[in-house]
Amino acid sequence: MKKNLAVTFGGKTVEHDISIITAIQLMNSADKSKYNIIPIYIDRDGKWYTGEKLLQIDVFKKFDPEQKGIKRVFLSASADAMLYEYGKKQKPVCRIDVAIPAMHGLNGEDGTVQGLFELSDIPYSSAGVTGSAVCMDKIVMKAAFKGFGFPVLDSLFFERNDFFTDCDSVCAKIEDALKYPVFVKPANLGSSIGVNRADNRDALVYAMEVAAKYDRRILVEKAVTNIKEVNCSVMGTSSDAKASAIEQPLTSGRFLGFEEKYLSNGKSKGMKSLGRIIPADIPEDMAERVRQLSLDIFKALDLKGLVRIDYIIDESTGSLYVNEVNTIPGSFAFYLWEPAGVPFASLVDHLVAIAEQQMREKKSSEYAYDSNVLQKVASGFKIGK
Fold first, then answer.
1. CB–CB of 320/290 below 8 Å?
2. C-alpha count within 13 angstroms, C-beta hemisphere, residue 85
3. Is the terminal CB of the chain with fewer CB neighbours within 10 Å at N or C?
4. Judging by beta carbons within 10 Å of its beta carbon (0-12, 13-18, 19+), is residue 161 exposed, middle or buried?
5. What is the pTM of this model?
6. Does the 3-124 domain belong in CATH 3.40.50.20?
7. Contact predicate 189/251, CB 8 Å
8. CA distances from 384 to 28, 93, 335, 374, 381 (A)
9. What is the pLDDT of residues 256-304, one digit of tens each?
């Protein structure tokens, strides 16, 4: 019997469009003899829709929720795993057997949708609530890395109000602690949106202003001038994880920005369109360090599903630094698994199996504890004043 496989995508995030591309790639690649694909598109206002038309990317170029074949829906949080039609009658649409979040950024990759799946008792393929939330916030993520002893670049963070209240003081702190050049990043965005490099005070002020448009918390990080970037994917659970091939993204500038990631050849095909070297042009001992560190991070942060971990190598010193974890990477980093003989269709099968395994693990824990506390509460017991 085929499983009802829900794929959630879109959402209230600046990475909305990239999420659509990732989802379409996955839904087109999934084995239709095994799965009934249920696309669940979340628009920019947070409304949920389903329908077969959502399998076609052209629908999203000018999305019309009123067109035939698309219906607005909502997911119950009452642990029945049911998708319902939105409206007065609230008719059941279907039961969801497994969910694959194909969402990037806030309101989807950050633990919010994962929390809803937890409440609904739906097996899902991404990192859990904690891992998703930690890896979404670059400031918290770096603190976690440092706490576990993983190598990270020096950094500072500021509130948006700190910068607007006393710009000169904030800039002086950065110049004193980190020196130039630095990277300035919104704490909770991906796809390099809002990220800028600063080599002087004017550029720093500009970079802070841009980052402040996207987030109230801003990370400022020491830049590596003689840099090589490498990425490694990990798939599985914390007790059974495997590392992928290692890629070396190619960039024509000083860092890999949104345009180069998705628009470098005139049209977007997701992360598939990015120029890269696989395997990365690094010595085998460095490659082994990257793979082992990736597995260590995956386990330490209690991740699951499929993630991509991005690294920086300082070629002047040979030092390796972990940059960030993408818990739902663009295009599900399928291009890192193909060299190991895992085509996209098989990758989907792995994600489904991981989701189901984690649900079995969840159900093996006790969530109730019998006590006689309520029976001992005195008659007429008052709460509050």
1. yes
2. 11
3. C
4. exposed
5. 0.89
6. yes
7. no
8. 56, 43, 59, 17, 10
9. 544 444 444 555 555 555 689 999 999 999 999 999 999 999 999 999 9
